[in-house]
Amino acid sequence: MRSSRRHPLLVPALLSALVVLAARPAVADGDGDGADLDISAQVERLYEDASVATGQYEAGRQDADAQRGRAERAERALVQERQEITVLHEDLGRIARAQYRQGGGLPYTAQILFAKDPDGLMRGQHAVRRADLAVARAVTKSRRAEGRLAVDEAKARSEWQALEKRSGELAAIKRTIEAKLDEARSALQSRADASVAAGSCRGAVRLDQPPVNFTSAWVAPVETYELSAGFGSGGEHWAHRHTGQDFAVPIGTPVRAAGAGRVVKVSCGGAFGIEVVVEHPGGYYTQYAHLAAVAVDQGQQVSTGEWIGQSGTSGNSTGPHLHFEVRVTPEMGSAIDPVPWLAEHGVVV
Questions:
Q1: How far is residue 193's CA from residue 200's CA, in Å, rounded to a whole number?
Q2: How many Å apart are CA 323 and CA 312, to the nearest integer?
Q3: By the 8 A CB rule, do 223 and 256 touch?
Q4: HSE-CB for 300 with a 13 A CA cutoff
Q5: Neighbours of 78 (CB within 10 A)
Q6: Three-state DSSP class for 140?
């Protein structure tokens, strides 16, 4: 799948996005053009929210991975510290046993009585003092290590708790966006099906167009997609052979003009469902079919990349996708393979 534009926003803004989404109504009530326009605009806004949240979700996932790495490093450090404390305890045992063997456990009076000469007494006392000092140092070192261990154990617990909380927040936001999008898409498609059944378009929806500043004259008709049925392929859904290239995209995906031109046809009936045909300089036409809504009027001039509708599954369609054709006339039956044609015009799909 082609990747869409990323929005490198910080993870904390995720919660703000969730609040905005929760405040928005799920689906506009009522029938008529006004409700249809509201649903189309709502789907558009939800796509924008989803795009932002996707960037935030990815940033949050990366942050969670980094946090998981810190927690795992803390766990490894704890294992090392516990091993060091075990060694310290063993050292204390050896020092204590050595001190006992050297007379460290005898009272000072007994040491005087058993000493053979003053020099021996002094050497014994010196050895005892060294042993006492070694024990004191070992005990201090062990206590410090145990204190560090307790602090690091608390830090490790905190890292894992924060990781679990972050993961839960991300999952909740993702579920909320997906649920709202699914509901809005369903409402949008229902109105599209009603238009096709009536054979009459509801009129162009006015979407908030993104900045159009393409340096190339041609673009792919959708930004993020997977290719499905290709030109010339066979199937029971076509009378002869497939006449275009299908781009598998969810309902409501913004569909853009592949190149600058003039809208020569807006239709809402038949096998193609809701469709738009654009005439381009040089004698070629592009068709965009199975839409859920149109955002242009017949006779309107469009720029490269301008949104002309929203994808759907209207007409003779097996699922959500955009059917895209390149033609030499505005009518069906004059299509050529759009993939090599786009490649010749600098667009690789």
A1: 11
A2: 10
A3: yes
A4: 15
A5: 16
A6: helix
Report the SS3 class of residue 248: strand
Closest CA to 237 of 339, 311, 323: 323
Reported pTM:
0.64
Pair 339, 245: CB distance under 8 Å: yes
CA atoms of 307 and 40, how far apart (whole Å):
12
Contacts of 91 (CB under 8 A, 6+ apart): 138
Burial of 31 (0-12, 13-18, 19+ CB in 10 A): exposed
Residue whose structure tokens are 């909380």: 165
Per-residue pLDDT of 296-343, as tens digits, reads 999 999 999 999 999 999 999 989 999 999 999 999 999 999 999 999
List the alpha helices (DSSP H) in the chain.
13-23, 33-101, 108-114, 118-198, 338-344
Give CB contacts under 8 A, 24+ apart, made by 277-282: 277/327, 277/330, 278/302, 278/308, 279/330
Per residue in 10-52, pLDDT (tens digit) is 334 434 444 444 444 444 444 444 555 578 888 888 877 777 7
Strand partners, 226: 248
Question: Cβ contacts of residue 173 below 8 Å, gap of 6+?
Answer: 14, 15, 17, 18, 53, 56, 57
The pair of structure tokens assigned to 136 is 């004191």
d(CA 251, CA 291): 8
Task: Answer for the pair 248, 227: CB distance below 8 angstroms, yes or no.
Answer: yes
d(CA 172, CA 18): 9
Per-residue three-class SS string for 316-347: CCCCCEEEEEEECCCCCCCEECHHHHHHHCCC
Residue type, 158: S
